[in-house]
Amino acid sequence: MGKVIDKASWADATAGVDNWRGEFEGGAYGAGICVIFVHTENIGDGPRLHRHPYPETFIVRNGRVRFTVGDATVDAEAGQIVVCPANVPHKFENLGPGLLEQIDIHEAGAFETVWLE
What's the chain's average pLDDT? Predict the structure, then answer.
């Protein structure tokens, strides 16, 4: 049987009703993915350099973003998808101006992150 997960259980309560910002770990529900919903207007916002033992897929819904993936720098914008292979160090930052919205899909039922900075 399917499971419906209310937004209140995964969303950042400070983000407001119309903003999608938060994290979902699917393993507890039998799903082999985790999802991060990125929503920020602050230029330069993004995570520090890190890696995961699984691939991560970034769907850019709105805005412009700069990724560091291994030794490469990749700029992406709304409508583009960036894939980072397993165990490759990566980070991203909002280039602005304005809102960056992403859906980041982790190919695992629980988050596993090694922070490098």
Answer: 94
